[in-house]
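Dear colleague,

Following up on Tuesday's group meeting, I ran the structure prediction for the two-component complex that the binding team flagged. I've pasted the input sequences exactly as they went in, so you can double-check that nothing got truncated or mislabelled along the way. The structure tokens for the whole assembly follow below. Feel free to forward this to whoever is handling the docking comparison.

Inputs:
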Amino acid sequence: MVGRGQAYTLEGVLAAILVVTATVYGLQAIDTRAWEDETQADTQALQSRASDVLSLAGNSGALRDAVTCYQQGRTINGDRAEPRSTFENMLNTSFDSQANQYNLYFSYYNGTDTEERLVSGNPEGSNTRAPSTAATASTTVTLTDSTNRTTGDRCGEIPVTVSDDPSFYIEENADSSLYNVVEVRLVVW
Amino acid sequence: MVADDRGQVLLIGGLAVAIVFLTAIPLSNSLVVSESASTSDTVADIDRAAEREASVERGLARVLASVDTTNTTAVNNSLQNFTRTYANVSGQQDGVYVNATVNVDESRGGVVNGTDDFRKYSGGGNQQNWDLVSDTETISEFSMWLNQTNSGNPTFEVIVSGSSGDEWRVELSRGTGSNSPKTVEIIQPDGSTETCTSTGDIRLDLKSGTCTMYTGTGSPTTVEFTSFSESLSEPYDIRFERSNNVNLGRYRLAAVGDFDSGSLSAVVVPAVKLQYVGPDTSYTRTILVEEES
């Protein structure tokens, strides 16, 4: 009877070891990461790409050049034929060449309400509407009275300031040396 | 009978233990799911806030570049304009509000200026050879007017030395006659020189490198020279020599560095108290905004 008791104990211990080993083995075999479908992962990757592009362009001044460059007939789009401005080159490398579509908006306060402009032109092809999985990134660009206009394919600086150019699309919205603040919004899908 | 029953109990007990362990696996999986889902959201919020903050700082630097930062009222006016415009464009779409004011106590910088002769009067005597500032890396203004000087070659010198000990000098000389012209000679560390000469007043902008000559009633002419910031590396020490020989003139230097006693404190690099209120985060902190060049 005593011998049988010992055998039971041993058997129990062995069974416990077996089950624990199986658990550890099982945990290693399966993927315990958060479940997400491919679209979600894509959107997140797009989101970080879009915000990286805006951060880089904002820091280097390329985004300001793009804001002062836009006018009727001169859209800001990475899909343009070369030569392009620095920001358009960034858009081209990051999105156009990866078969992503995007809309670029500039919004600013014109004294009474916020005006938003689609400056990238309408995307081409069948997939022209931003789907619900589109990623959005935004940043702001500050223009002062002494900021120069940029023009041409490369958005080169010209010796005319934004406050001196009556044809510039953004109106002055401050009495001091500040000209206006423009919010740049990039919607990518 | 008892032994047979125990076998069954053990079997059921074993099964129960196995079930407990098997449920532990999916349970731990779901724990990881909830944890990682909440983490990624928080990270995205912080990312957005950081990017917003960076764009606010860029904007502030841009605004401050076009203001005389030593004038605190002008700086505060510009900041108010900026925060109002920023709230208009950003608040309506993203719910991000910022408020920025200059914190004068935390700001860095000083100003030395003088009129008539260029001697140092404050902090012990009227020294003719003296250091305006040492160890300076940020200079927002360094200019001088030279109206009347004694004769001599050179009669007055400005010496800027860089980190390597090289010197960039401005030597002013004038002949003995009452109508003899003043000549300003800029001597680069490599020995090359640039000059400008005038019988009338001379205005030097040593930071940007321009010499404006006024002669009689004619319109002034301006020539450019290589500034010390292009030929020396930071930090700089700036010194006047024989400053008693300038009889009439004025100078002004606004910089961040070690000033002798007698300098006025001024906002050269403003400390901006920035309040950020966003949908996910809000905070107040003070940042030093260097001018954007």
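The beta strands of chain A are 102-109, 114-118, 135-144, 148-151, 156-161, 178-188.

Cheers,
M.
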